[in-house]
Amino acid sequence: MTLNTILNTKLNTMKMTQPVGVIADIGGLELTPEDKQFLQQPEISGLIFFARNYQSSAQLKVLCAEINELRPDLLLTVDQEGGRVQRFREGFTRFAPMMMYEAIYKNDAQRALALAKDGGWLLASELIEHGVDLTFAPVLDIERDCSQVIGDRAFGHDADTVSALASAWIEGLQSAGMMAVGKHFPGHGAVVADSHKELPVDSRSTGELDYDIQPFKALIADNKLGGIMPAHVVYPAVDSEHTAGFSAIWLQNILRKQIGFTGTIFSDDLSMEGAASGGDFYQRSFAAANAGANALVVCNNREAAQQVINAARDMHSAGTQRLDLSGWIPSTKRAKNINNTTAANNELTEAVKARLANAGLINL
C-alpha cells in the first residue's frame, strides 16, 4: 500500500487497532503559561527533554515536579545514552560511549557484562532521582564503521556482542526501576546517511537485514524490551515504499507477528528529515499510526506538534484508544531508597562509580 493510498483511505481507517498518543516537548527551563495549556491536552502521553531544558540538577527536579503536579500521568523521557548523546551533563555522571564496552568484552566478557549492568543502573538511577522516567535506549544497531549517526553509540560490531552487552545494560536499568526501548529497528548501522538530515536507504538483502535484527529478537525473546523505536530508513528488500517507521510490513508483519513483540512502538522523531516521506505532520501521524506505531514522537516544533496532536485527537474521536504510558513510570520515582535501587544510596553509588571509572567508562 502506497502512502497516497493510506492517505486517501484515512477517513475509513481513523480508528486504529492499537492505542495511540503523542510525545511532545517544551522550549525552556520552566513551564510557561502556554506550555501548561499545551500539556493539558489529553492526546499527549509523554514529554521528551533536551539540553535546552536543563540548567542544573535542582532546576530539573523542580521542572519535573511541576510537570508531575500538572499531569501526573505523563511519562517524562530523554535521550540519555552516554557519549555524544547525553542531554543532561553538568551534575550528572558523564558516561563514555557504549562502544567502549566492546573492547572490554573481547578481553573479559564477564567483567564487561558486570560493568554494563553497573552503567545501566547508574544512568537510570540518576534520571529517576531527578524525576525523569525513561531514556530512549539502548541502541541495538550493529556498527559497520560507516554510519554518520550511529558510530560509537553502538555496543559493538557483531550481533552477539551487541545482544550480550545491551542485555546486561538493560538489567541495570531494570534493577533501578526503568524500562528499556530498543532502537533503531531493524538496524541503522549499515547506512551512511543521517536520517536527521536526509532519507537513508539500506539496499542490503533480507539475509543481511536478518542478521541486524538478531539483537532485537534476542532481547524481545528475553522480555527485556518494553518499547521499540523504528528507524527512518528505507529497506527496499522488504518494503521499497516506506521507511520502517511508516511500514506495516516491518511493524505489524515482522515486529509484531513474526518476532512476537507486544510492547509499545515509539516512532522516531516525526520532524526528522527521514520522516518527510510521510507527508506533512498530520499525514505523518496517520502514516505512522496506520503502520502500527503507538507513541507519535514530535520534537522541536510546537506547530508541528499541534498537528500531530490534532491527528491523534481525530483518531480518538473515531474510537482509537488513548495511549496511557503511566505504567512506565518507575515505582522507585516516589520511593527512592527501596531495595537500594537508586542513586540516593550514596555508598552503593560510589562503589559503582569507582568500578566504572577504573574501566574508563565514566569521567569523575
What does this structure look like?
This protein has a single domain (3-294, 315-363), classed as TIM Barrel (Alpha-Beta Barrel), CATH 3.20.20. The chain contains eleven helices and 14 strands. It has helices at 3-8, 33-39, 57-70, 100-107, 109-130, 159-176, 206-221, 248-258, 281-291, 302-317, 346-358, and strands at 21-24, 44-49, 75-78, 80-82, 85-86, 94-95, 134-135, 181-185, 227-230, 234-235, 239-243, 264-265, 295-297, 362-363. The longest helix is centred in the first third of the chain and has 22 residues, at 109-130.
Key descriptive features of the protein:
TIM Barrel; five-stranded parallel sheet; three-stranded parallel sheet; globular; 11 helices; alpha/beta; 39% helix; disordered N terminus; 364 residues
Provide a short characterization of the protein structure.
The chain has 364 residues and is of the alpha/beta class. It is built from 11 helices and 14 strands.
Set out the fold topology.
Layout (H helix, E strand, L loop, with lengths): L2 H6 L12 E4 L8 H7 L4 E6 L7 H14 L4 E4 L1 E3 L2 E2 L7 E2 L4 H8 L1 H22 L3 E2 L23 H18 L4 E5 L20 H16 L5 E4 L3 E2 L3 E5 L4 H11 L5 E2 L15 H11 L3 E3 L4 H16 L28 H13 L3 E2 L1
Parallel strand pairs: 1-2, 1-13, 2-3, 3-7, 8-9, 9-12
Antiparallel strand pairs: 4-5, 6-14, 10-11
Helix pairs in contact: 4-5, 5-6, 5-11, 6-7, 9-10
